[in-house]
Design brief:
Elements lengths: L1 H21 L4 H25 L2 H13 L8 H25 L5 H7 L1 H24 L6 H21 L7 H13 L7 H15 L9 H22 L7 H10 L8
Helix pairs in contact: 1-2, 1-4, 2-3, 3-4, 4-5, 4-7, 6-7, 6-9, 7-8, 8-10, 9-10
């Protein structure tokens, strides 16, 4: 289809853009590459709109809005561009699985593997800094910092899904939920959850090295950390009045497989 051709024509330029940002090339060069991709992205928006791909349409518009216009690019701007590309890759993979077509997202993720891993490692480092800030605050429940950690784990999930699509990355989503609730004062962040979070970050950082992942080992480690986090949430959830034991009993009566509980 026309959309497929446009995607395949546009992805190499997106690859060049992401690599230019990651390599911290001259800002003028990055703007030049950004200008090269504007028109192809515009064509992709029109084609996606005609096909009814509303989610992909909005994602491409996000990339367009993130593109730099001036020969000055802050780190935050660069991260927004790469994050938008990562989100588009995830959408293309989902669409490809749905339609049975290879839209190029998987291959681009492989090409960008080094860039994505470097950005992921930097992002995990920022999470550790915010955990330190939470630990040194008066009540370890600074709403703004907790909200930021939640948003950062959402980005982590996007990176992991693009890099290692064969693993279902549920662990980051647990932290997205937990720290978002902490930001709303619905969950207390104590030393235990900070320790679990740090262990999770340490585990995820082992995946940013050579780009290879032992799927069974990664899944097993993720399950272990997820169980610890779920146990914490069970015992510290203050969002409702129902006793924790009663909730556990109800969930147990549903006979949900352990890996889904």
């Amino acid at each position: 289809t026309i959309f497929l051709r446009q995607v395949r024509n546009g992805l190499p330029i997106l690859e060049q853009l992401a690599n230019s940002i990651a390599a911290k090339q001259d800002p003028a060069r990055i703007v030049a590459v950004a200008n090269d991709i504007r028109r192809p992205l515009g064509w992709m928006v029109r084609a996606a709109t005609k096909l009814g791909y509303a989610g992909i349409t909005e994602r491409i518009k996000t990339i367009l809005n993130c593109l730099p216009n001036e020969p000055q690019l802050s780190q935050e701007q660069g991260e927004r561009v790469v994050d938008a590309i990562v989100a588009l890759l995830s959408d293309l993979r989902t669409l490809g699985e749905t339609t049975g077509s290879e839209l190029g997202g998987e291959s681009l993720a492989q090409v960008l593997s080094r860039t994505l891993r470097e950005n992921l490692d930097g992002l995990l480092g920022l999470i550790l800094q915010n955990l330190d800030a939470l630990e040194t605050s008066a009540d370890m429940a600074d709403e703004d910092v907790a909200d930021l950690v939640s948003q950062q784990f959402s980005r982590v999930h996007g990176y992991l899904s693009s890099l290692y699509g064969k693993v279902h990355w549920d662990l980051p989503l647990l932290f997205v939920d937990a720290y978002a609730r902490a930001a709303r004062r619905q969950l207390s962040i104590y030393a235990d959850v900070l320790a679990i979070t740090r262990d999770a970050v340490a585990f995820l950082r082992t995946l940013t090295g050579n780009g290879r992942v032992d799927v069974p080992a990664a899944a097993a480690r993720q399950d272990e950390l997820s169980r610890r986090m779920k146990d914490y949430l069970w015992s510290h959830d203050s969002a409702g009045d129902t006793p924790v034991d009663a909730i556990k009993s109800f969930v147990g009566s549903l006979n949900i497989p352990p890996e889904l509980a």
